[in-house]
Amino acid sequence: MVEQPGSPLLKQLASGKNTAVQVLRELSEPRDGRARVDKVENRLTGHEMAILQLVAQGETSKDIGELVGLGEQTIKNYLVKIFEKTNTRNRAHAVALAAQNGWLLPLVET
Fold this sequence. Notes:
Elements: H1 8-15, H2 20-28, H3 40-43, H4 46-56, H5 61-68, H6 72-86, H7 91-100
Helix pairs in contact: 4-6, 4-7, 5-6
């Protein structure tokens, strides 16, 4: 990345007031100023998180579909997206990752 003369980053570097960590943080942020989100959890949509929660509770794709008003195949499509985003291979792997990282709500005994 090449900064233009007079850019805020170059001015900060020239002033000597930035630490290396601050410079790296600034360089890693997208150009539009939004903070980059690297956590997998934050890349999952609300629907995907809800489906993952229901999978963790042992629900089948068919049952999840009935609970949320979607077809079984739609739920399976959501699961494929979850596996892709979390780099997991199957339902058990995705749930294990979610549990290890504290993404799941506590299970309620009925």
